[in-house]
Amino acid sequence: MPEMPKVQGLVDFLRLKLLPPDGPPATVAEVEVLSFSVLKTAVVPVGELGTKAVSDFVRRGKFIVLTAGGAHLVMHLAKAGWLRWSDALKPGRLRPGKGPIALRVRFAADGEGEPGFDLTEAGTKKSLAVYVVRDPNEVPGIERLGPEALDVDFEAFARMVASHRGQIKGLLRDQSAVAGIGNAYSDEILHAARLSPFAIASKLDPDEVERLFEAMRGTLESAIAGASGRPAAELKDSKRKAMRVHGRTGEACPVCGDEVREVSFADSSLQYCPTCQTGGKLLADRRTSKFLK
C-alpha cells in the first residue's frame, strides 16, 4: 500500500501539472468511471467536477484529494492501486470493465494532446476506493485520521506511546494515532530506532521513545525528499532502493551486516535485523496470527 512518502511524491508531481506556479490551473474536462465498484459515493455526481478549474491537490494521510469547484475527488490507492499521469492521453472513451484502469480524469487540452491521469489496480482483490464529496471529512477513512506523523510534537508523541498497551509497530500503523505510516515505513522506522517490532509501546523507556520519535521524523523526511517531484513511474523503484530492511529478507543489514529476517502473518509480513533490533533474538513466525491485519 502506498504510504505517506510515496503518496506525497505523487501529489508534489501532480501539483506542478495541475497548479503550475507560472500558469493557470488545469480544468477538469471529464471523469470517466471504468469500474463502478471503485466509486463509493452517490450523493455528489461525478459530473460536478467537469468544466471546473482545479483549486487544490493535496494529501491527507494516505488519501489524495483533488478539489474542483465545490466538489472533492478523494482517492485511496489501497494495496495494489496506482496513479499514472500522461501529458497526452489517447483520444476516445475507454470501455468499462476492460483492463486495469478503474477511473480516468481528463483535463482540458492546453496545446497538443489532452493531459490526464488513470487510477489502476492490479490483482483480483479490488480495494481501490474513490469518493466524490462536498467535504473530505465525509470520507470515513479521513474522518478517523489522527494527526500527520510529521506534525506531532515530541510531548504528544510520548503521551501517545505511553498510553498504548499494544505492540509499537501496531501503534505506528494505526491511522487514528498517526496518519501516513504503513507496514513498510514502520519497519524502516523501527530499524532506525533499534527497536523490536514486538516491543510493548507503554514499556519503552524515555531514551527509546526519543529514539523512536527521531527515527520517525528522520525516516519520513528523508523518504519524502527522495520522492518529491519524481514522475509517478519512478516512485516505486526509488522507494525499493531506499529501503534498509523492508522487503530485504535474507540480505545483509546495511548497519551491522547481520541477515535481515522476516516474520510472516496471515496476510502480511515484516522485516527486521536481529542484531540491531532484538539483541540477536529471532522472532517467532506468526503466520496464523491476526496481528497487524
From TrEMBL:
It catalyses: Hydrolysis of DNA containing ring-opened 7-methylguanine residues, releasing 2,6-diamino-4-hydroxy-5-(N-methyl)formamidopyrimidine. InterPro entries: FPG_cat, FPG_N, H2TH_FPG, Ribosomal_uS13-like_H2TH, Znf_DNA_glyclase/AP_lyase, Znf_FPG/IleRS. This is DNA-formamidopyrimidine glycosylase. Belongs to the FPG family. One of its GO terms (molecular function) is damaged DNA binding. The keyword DNA-binding applies. It holds the Pfam family Fapy_DNA_glyco. One of its GO terms (biological process) is base-excision repair. Its cofactor is Zn(2+). Residues 244-278 form the FPG-type domain. Keywords: DNA damage, DNA repair, DNA-binding, Glycosidase, Hydrolase, Lyase, Metal-binding, Multifunctional enzyme, Zinc, Zinc-finger. SUPFAM superfamilies: Glucocorticoid receptor-like (DNA-binding domain), N-terminal domain of MutM-like DNA repair proteins, S13-like H2TH domain.
